[in-house]
Specification:
Rossmann fold; alpha/beta; globular; homodimer; five-stranded parallel beta sheet
């Protein structure tokens, strides 16, 4: 009976303790947990600084943010953020009077815009490792990057509305075949033109290269209404589109 | 003894249940909780769409985001986000070679940049109510808006580094005295010039008005290195600064 009462007391204590913990009445001191909360707050602000271009140029994600970026990209938030970008893009597209002469244009970047390279970055620290061009080129050769689903829906809607679609990528001319193959594999088709870096474009900043290519389109008589890209260098410079749409990318930065 | 055993079993069950709940092994169905999680995810994405200018023009915050915006602004996140903007600004400022001729300029917006009107917006739904110009003007007349602490630190550092500070606000010329009084009350001083909307500027978009004023500074020989503002209309247009810094503001949008 005495043993039973002791057990009873122990269980009562355990029970109350569990309820208290579950309702956060008692906080268990844990450096790891506290630091994780701090990291989340910091990394959330860091990500905003990147997405608004306040951060400017950066080489790799802060080491304390690796877990955060992983959770962001493979969880609901990346998906949700991308979907609102597509929603905003479509909302604007609906205000454009498409003339029917084929000159109403929309530009898409490819990597982290139409396609997602998450399968690659998941194996390479989600941007916490220095960029390995050789390894990434091998991944590109596989032509198996899946579509970013929000962009796929937007792409199809814009096509239906009569926009002429240009794909403007930092990938090189020698990657034309695998890039086209990957786009088809992912479900994209009927783009007007796929523009890649020619040998004469090598060494140019992405901002300059993409601006020059946009200017060529403008000189051909295209009206560039929208431009979708995950890098500010996809969107800024000259011959800018009427409206630009910045897709999220907390993994890497391209000048 | 039987009663004691029943109690024992009950407590054992309760104990296990509590542990299970505390460790999220069992999810308690709760519409309110689920919807709150959905709202947080949506509102987080909505806020990003606003901060990146993807959303374009908007009138008031989505009604489902009122609680979210309140928690964001009065909690740690607004502070943390503002601090990283100040950090990014300072990091860039340190790369500028200040010539010592007084022509190296930095522009600050005032509302939600140097000063925070949170005491006002806390009483007006954090952006969920339509903008009430008369009520806001009454608040401005009080001249009691506190400094946004992150901007205060940046302001002082830039002054010490020798930058010439211009304050460029959408407030009107007739609010010059109360605005100066409020800035001094908040702890700012020694700005070069406070630029407000003159009667001839009324009716212009903020982007046009601010671009024209920046162009006047450029024509006076100033080199505008940095520009800090919570609205994209503070930053975009022509005669843009070398680098722009977007402070967070999920409460309102100015064209």
């Amino acid at each position: 009976m005495a043993a039973s009462q002791s057990l009873l007391s122990l269980l009562l204590l355990l029970s109350l303790l569990s309820v208290a913990i579950s309702q956060s009445l008692i906080r268990i001191p844990s450096d790891r947990k506290a630091s994780s909360v701090d990291d989340d707050l910091y990394c959330d602000s860091w990500r905003l600084s990147v997405e608004t271009n306040n951060a400017g140029s950066w080489i790799k994600i802060p080491s304390r943010c690796q877990r955060y970026v992983e959770q962001y990209t493979i969880g609901d938030r990346y998906l949700s953020d991308s979907e609102i970008v597509a929603f905003d893009s479509l909302t604007f597209a609906k205000t454009v009077k498409v003339a029917g002469d084929g000159k109403d244009a929309w530009i898409f970047d490819i990597d982290e815009t139409l396609l997602t390279n998450l399968p690659y970055y998941a194996l390479h620290g989600f941007g916490s490792e220095p960029f390995d061009e050789a390894a990434f080129d091998e991944w590109v050769e596989l032509a198996q990057a899946p579509a970013l689903s929000a962009s796929m829906n937007l792409y199809k809607e814009l096509k239906q509305m009569g926009f002429t679609i240009f794909l403007l990528t930092g990938r090189s001319e020698h990657q034309r075949n695998v890039t086209g193959k990957n786009l088809l594999f992912a479900g994209y088709n009927n783009w007007e033109r796929l523009i890649l870096r020619e040998p004469s474009d090598q060494g140019k900043s992405a901002t300059l290269y993409k601006s020059q290519k946009r200017l060529e389109l403008v000189n051909e008589g295209y009206r560039i209404h929208g431009n979708s890209g995950d890098q500010w260098s996809d969107l800024l410079g000259f011959a800018m589109s009427e409206r630009s749409f910045k897709l999220p990318n907390p993994m890497y930065y391209i000048q």
